[in-house]
Amino acid sequence: MITPIDRPLRLLGIAGSLRRGSFSGAVLKTLAELAPGDVAITCHALGDVPLYNGDDDTETPPAGVRLLWQAIGNSDGLIIVTPEYNYGIPGVLKNALDWASRPGSGFCLRGRPVLTLSVSPGATGAARAHCQLIATLDAVLARTVLRRQITIGGVADKVQDGRLTDPASLEAGLAGVDDLRQEIGRLRSA
Fold it and tell me: I need a labelling partner for 9 at 20 to 30 A (CA). Which of 24, 113, 144, 174 fits?
């Protein structure tokens, strides 16, 4: 039995692209708008997270890193949407995951439920980046939601005015949010 939740789930959305009009950001924004009432999705931009430098990995890391750690720590789970750059995840996303795996963060990704999606203007929907994202999350002991991958190919034709409009992609994304919600409920019941 899944324990009922007495407050909205706090999900943190992270887009793997810094571009203002990014397709990753558009997918997250749309999921946040259409999420059920018991789910609140807040998006966290990665532009202020500096490149990882072991010299800065101290008790007082850079401000952008502290904000990332706090945002992850205050969430019940994450939704990460990645594009594919040269067959892999963007450096900005990998960098953020590296920072969030450090001891100073309290290993804030360890055991954290994560829903993953990938987007690409190409036909594969960034499947290679998706696999790389899951491998990285496994390495940092995050709890990736086990489900069919959500890869959105041809995304340039599926986003209009900054919103994901493709019915099949919307259905898959919202089903993924529901799977994440159920995973969080199972963890709370354990």
Answer: 24
Task: Report in angstroms the alpha-carbon separations of 154 from 96, 143, 151, 157.
Answer: 26, 28, 10, 6
Tens of pLDDT, residue by residue over 108-163, are: 999 999 999 999 999 989 999 999 999 999 999 999 999 999 999 999 999 999 99
User: Which residue type sits at 70?
Assistant: Q
CATH number, residue 56: 3.40.50.360
Phi, psi of 6, deg, nearest 5:
-90, 5
- Yes or no: say if 135 and 120 are a contact pair by the CB < 8 Å rule: no
Which residue has tokens 């898959």? Answer: 172
Distance in angstroms (rounded) separating the CA atoms of residues 112 and 175 = 19
Tell me if 3 is assigned to some domain. Answer: no
Q: Which domain holds residue 121?
A: 9-189
**Is the Cα torsion angle 31, 82, 52, 21 positive or negative in sign?**
negative
CA 127 from centre of chain: 15
In a domain, 25, yes or no: yes
